Amino acid sequence: MNYQPQDFLPIFVQLAAALAFIVLVMVLTHALGPKRHSAKKDDSFECGIESIGDARTPISVKYFLVAILFVLFDLEIVFMYPWAVNFKQLAWNGFYEMIVFMGLLLAGFIYVIKKGILTWEK
Length: 122
Hints:
By secondary structure, this protein is mainly alpha-helical. Helix content is 66%, strand content 3%. The relative contact order is 0.05.
């Protein structure tokens, strides 16, 4: 299949429309929004809770490990979706490749379980 530059025109038009919408909305919100400032209003807060103390309190590394593992194992869907769409064209060779891919993911998951990364209390 030989693609020509004009084949990509709808994608560029949609991208330009999306960027124009983003710029327009940002300009309008800054231009039309209220501009009242005060010490109380400009104070930082998290979910309505006032900030008290140092922001550099120690946080358990478990939270970060769970977040990274979620991204890692959730990202497999990005690879599985095109495989599922092209399942018939890939035939048995594609099936075997996906078995290897899923086996590697399973091996990683077993490693995570054996290391106790997802165990919160000891």
